[in-house]
Amino acid sequence: MTEELAGWGTRGTTGVSFAATLEFDAVDVRLGGRAVLSQFSLTLRPGEIVCLLGESGSGKSTALRVAAGIQPIHAGAVRINGQIVSTPGMTVPTDRRGVGLMFQDFALFPHLTVLQNVLFGLRKLGRPAALAQARAALRRVGLGDREADYPHMLSGGQQQRLALARSVAPRPGVLLLDEPFSSLDARLRETVREETLAVLRETNVTSLIVTHDPEEAMILGDRVALLRHGRIAQIGTGADIYRQPIDLSAARFFSPLSEIETVVADGQAQTPLGAVPTPELADGTPVTVAIRPAGGARLRSSGPGTPGRVVSKRDAIGEDLCEVKVEGLDAPLGVRQPASSALAVGQDVFVTLNREHVLVFPRI
Q1: What mean pLDDT value characterizes the chain?
Q2: Sequence-distant (≥ 6) Cβ neighbours of residue 117 within 8 angstroms
Q3: Which of 363, 352, 330, 357 is nearest to 264 (CA)?
Q4: Is pLDDT above 60 for 2?
Q5: Per-position DSSP letters for 47-71, written without gaps between them
Q6: Rounded to whole angstroms, what are the CA distances from 114 to 111, 167, 171, 178, 184?
Q7: For residue 179, how many other CB atoms are within 10 A of its CB?
Q8: pLDDT one-digit tens code per residue, 165-183
Q9: What secondary structure does DSSP assign to 248-262, as a single string?
Q10: Got the DSSP string for 171-238?
Q11: Quick one: pLDDT at residue 14?
């Protein structure tokens, strides 16, 4: 195991924060005449981890900057533990909010040592207490033996660990994380993400995490808030939003889809792959049937099922990514399933739908 992947400290040694509530109450933010947040409302319970998920420009990073006290608001209010910290014309400074910040570029002080970087947020404590908390945080992230080094002497993964140690060492009531893993390569991201989540759970800090990665949001968040045009389009557990997206756009955000346009007849949406029940939609309703590549359909070498032919196959780690041509479909059907050496391009297969991963949306 490489140095990057090893060396995290003992779990359960970070120190517990006094978790706070964080509330956005109908917040508006306008930048350059454009509404970036519009009537944005969200409440985080003490110790809860909420992920803000959305495309670029959806307002998620602005919401984080509002919570941090970096971005003033034009309407509404922000409260931490019931105390107003932002209203139009009034913004409590960041260092008086009891919040910790962790940004994607880490924002480390290059002229300070590893230990001094962590001590920077502990200036209100006496020297002995500050040193104890700083060193405990560094040991937890596996940097206890690097306290005299400077940030440029650390690898990217180690700089991320240092940023995490600095943000949790003061034991804030609220921790704000902006795309904290985006600068890490895929080899590191999973391990660092897992350990960071463990630290957040240990400290019990209320955490607001901005990400554009749906899988990351589902792994990290107790709840996921999907932002669109400065508003929350849908909020719930990651599993709930994935299984029951509010609309076709939300479904597309979580995964690619094979889409079939049809009309409801006799309580079903008829497709070349078979009928999909639509008990809540009236006959004659135009709909889009959306099939997820992971789990939406299964390929077999023999029936039952709808005949098709594999027109492309790509190998992923432990999975086959296939496209299957089916008569009556305008585009090949995308299917992601466990790897099989028996599956080949040009092979005739039979396709069956898994209704649990098939979604139906009225066309607007």
Answers
A1: 91
A2: 108, 109, 151, 162, 166
A3: 363
A4: no
A5: T-EEEEE--TTSSHHHHHHHHHTSS
A6: 10, 13, 18, 21, 19
A7: 19
A8: 999 999 999 999 999 888 7
A9: HHHHHHHS--EEEEE
A10: --SEEEEESTTTTS-HHHHHHHHHHHHHHHHHHT-EEEEEES-HHHHHHH-SEEEEEETTEEEEEE-H
A11: 61
Strand-strand pairing, 99-102 and 90-91: unpaired
Would the pLDDT of 27 be above 60?
yes
Half-sphere exposure of 70 (CA within 13 A, CB side): 11
Pick the more confident residue, 345 or 3: 345
**Measured CA distances, 73 to 34, 53, 69, 78, 275 (Å):** 13, 21, 9, 9, 50
CA atoms within 13 A on the CB side of 210: 23
Q: What is the pLDDT of residue 188?
A: 81
Residue 4 has what pLDDT? 45
Token pair belonging to 76: 């509404």
Alpha-carbon Rg for the chain in angstroms: 24
The letter for the amino acid at 340 is S
d(CA 135, CA 145): 10
The answer on pLDDT for 10 being more than 80 is: no
